[in-house]
Amino acid sequence: MGQVASTRRAFLTGSVLRENGGHYPPGVTDESVRNCSGCGDCVDACPTKIISLRDRIPTIDFQVGECTFCGECSARCPERVFPPEPATSFAHHAVIADNCLALNFVDCQACRDVCPTTAIRFKPRLGGPFVPVLDTDPCTGCGACISVCPTQSITMTANTMEVAHA
């Protein structure tokens, strides 16, 4: 029962955060990862080298770099772990913590400079440097912002499905 509830919860929240804190490669789910043989072909195929195997399961390390959604991991996988079409985003988005330099009156815009979708922008503030504003709609969860942050203030959180009431 616990496994089913965990899978249902992950599906409903869009969560692909592993219990040990890592993230699956794009498009991989708790259900599809069960097909993984741990061969490591996805690790070898990743041009940015952000995929590693933890307990024979592919895991993303955004401290190493970003996901470019090239689809090489999916193309090289001999199992049915990845979706048929390469994913174009993760089921998570960036979150900027309070220890961000810019939020603490130190000029830094490293995350904005590397964001490929301009999801991170900076707005003016009286008496201090610009402050970061994250637009979660264009954020693909690629992780480009994570490795460049000097204070490791950026993490990922699961996208949530909002229900509109009529």
UniProtKB/TrEMBL annotation:
GO terms for molecular function: 4 iron, 4 sulfur cluster binding; metal ion binding. Pfam families: Fer4_7. Residues 24-56, 58-87, 106-125, 130-159 form the 4Fe-4S ferredoxin-type domain. CDD domains: NapF_like (cd10564). Keywords: 4Fe-4S, Iron, Iron-sulfur, Metal-binding, Repeat. PROSITE patterns: 4FE4S_FER_1 (PS00198), 4FE4S_FER_2 (PS51379). PANTHER family: PHOTOSYSTEM I IRON-SULFUR CENTER (PTHR24960:SF79), PHOTOSYSTEM I IRON-SULFUR CENTER-RELATED (PTHR24960). This is Ferredoxin type protein NapF. It comes from Pseudomonas sp. G-179. The gene is napF.
